[in-house]
Amino acid sequence: KLLSFCFFKIFIKNPLLRRYFIVGKLNLNFYTVISGITLLIMLVNLPFGYIRSKSTNFSRKKGRCIYIPILISIVLRKILSLSYYAIPFMVAGTIDGQFFGAKIKKR
What DSSP letter does each residue of 2-46 carry, written as one string? Predict the structure, then answer.
């Protein structure tokens, strides 16, 4: 157990090891990873957009539905140790997810 704990501490601190174990031995292109992350963030934001469209203006519920997915995308970017070039794509995924989630409610 001590060995696994030491490996976990090294794993958390070293972004190269994190990226190797998350992506695996696959040789993925930067654009493939970015498009996958964008789609993942968009899927995470769909229920938040649906809930946000049902809530009233300037309520806590609406604020939480906007800011919780942003925190999720920040944590995801930190865990995957993506560069700052990924931020515009993640923001686009967040906006698209909120938009399409609101469209689900209108149908």
Answer: HHHHHHHHHHHH-HHHHHHHHHTT----HHHHHHHHHHHHHHHHH
Report the distance separating Cα 53 and Cα 32, nearest Å.
Answer: 31
Count other C-beta atoms under 10 Å from residue 21's C-beta: 10
pLDDT tens string 60-85: 989 999 899 999 998 888 887 777 88
Cα separation values, 3 from 8, 12, 96, Å? 9, 14, 43
The pTM for the full model equals 0.68
pLDDT of residue 79: 82
Contacts of 67 (CB under 8 A, 6+ apart): none
Q: Which of 79, 107, 74 is nearest to 93 (CA)?
A: 74
CA–CA distances in Å: residue 12 to residues 18, 44, 63, 71, 80 = 7, 24, 31, 19, 11
List C-alpha distances in Å: 24 to 78, 91, 101: 17, 26, 32
